[in-house]
Amino acid sequence: MTNANPTEPQTDPPSPEEGDGDENLVFLDDSDPAGTDPVDGEAGGCGGGGHGPPGNRWTMLIVDDEPEVHSITKLVLSDFTYKGRKARFLSAHSAAEARRILARESDIALILLDVVMETEDAGLRLVHHIREELQNRNVRIILRTGQPGQAPERAVILDYDINDYKAKTQLTAQQLFTTTVAALRSYEDIVTIDANRRGLEKIIEASSSLFRTRSMKLFAAGVLTQLSGLLGVGPDAILCVQRGPHPRTGTAVSCDGLYVLAGSGRFEALINEPAAGHVDPAVLDAVGACLEKRAHHYAGDHCTLYIRTPNDRETVVYLRSGRPLSDLDRRLIEVFCGKISVGFENLHHYEQLYRAQQGTLAALADLAERGRGALTADVLADGQADAADSGAAAGDPAGGRFSRSLRIAALTERIARRLHADGRFPESLDESTLEIIGLAAILHDIGNAVINPDILAKPGPLDPAERRAMQAHTVAGAALLDQASHLTDGPTHLHLGAAVARWHHENWDGTGYPDGRTGAAIPLCARIVAVADAYDAMTRDRPYRAAMRHEEAVAEIRRLAGLRFDPAVADAFLAVAPEIGAVGPDSGLSAA
Question: What angle do CA 536, 537, 541 make, to 5 degrees?
């Protein structure tokens, strides 16, 4: 600032190294060679003898309208070092110039700020701009003034968020050094606390979103995404590997049972593939070492994180960070992995319960498909034999009847998820509905339990009385599931299943049964199951005809779109049909 009664500047200032170190700071005359700024005094200039990237130095902003103040400050702190980091100086000769620097520089640790510059309160207005408009609470601000009367210390320190107040005439070289170190120490502590807070917020947010996931595959992919955001690494720098039975076949795979559970970037195409032969040998070695030690390992450019899951499965996240991870990064990783291990365990239990529920519903559907009198010793013995034969042939230990129910459920879910991905019916297909629609589909023919088994197994056409009896299974199934749904808080698969059971034989053009509903009056879940059930029926041998080939069944559903089937649902089926044809009609059609 410009003093009202300026002191005549000395022409030969003492060096900071001379004397007792407590001499007053002296403002140098611009013409004095000894007072020449040792570094570039323009905004963005660097000094303090610091070499290397700015991130390795303490960035200090000097804001003062007198050039000699910049010069003497840089001279006094020219050899300044704190915790092995030198100083980097930025210069602003007005509050307006300081605002421009602050807008582009995000790592300023300390501001040495004059009060009176282009206006009498320019410095104080800049403080308000920093704290209130920029919301920068981390940078330390030291007011230096040559006119204490213009800005009384008591009033300023109370009314403005500054960290120190110094009169220029009282500030010695040693005091400037001490004040600078104290400010930087405070800044470092605040930044560390802020980084911890933001890291923990990310963990809490990540945990909240991850724990809403009900798929192990999606959960693992979410873990990778959240770790990328937490540590700021690239999308292709992470690989997740698990040791244990393969998720699709249940059999062991090569290379100690390692396979890719989830990946991103260049690893994304490897999901569910054995690690051997697909993953870089160096990455595989790092994963193997982590599994052997059963502990996290941090290297210069990557880390491997060990997460133990239920049933003795072990998950390793390989993360290529491209830089050494800080102590804070490691602490956050420890907290995150602790939470994630709980998430894996909870999700494992959820999947087990879901599969048990699927099995229970498939068993009920099997009984319903057999009709009245199904629980006889001969039938149960035949069922066990069928299950063994079917399981051996199709890789389905549950048997052919079970596989049919589960296949319809999986196809229903695929169609529903395709509609959801295409943005169709958002009011009906939320995430909770997508999770239970497959279970509801298993129950679509539960009403067959009231039908005479002779009618169900009749090889020829049904007479009118038999047809009426057969059509009654829709109303009977709906009544049964509606009664059961009253035991739960909705919506559940029982509520959805009641609608499916009653209306999955309705046709888009109104020619179906039992109520002759048309178009959108038919619940969406029933319209989806109608397509899945029809495709399954077409591709299965029936008492009165042989099974259609996949291509023939797809062509028939395309032909009946707008007549028997909802055109939008038929389009979604046609979109996923190539995937169904690739795995074949006897596949379990695992819903991804």
Answer: 110
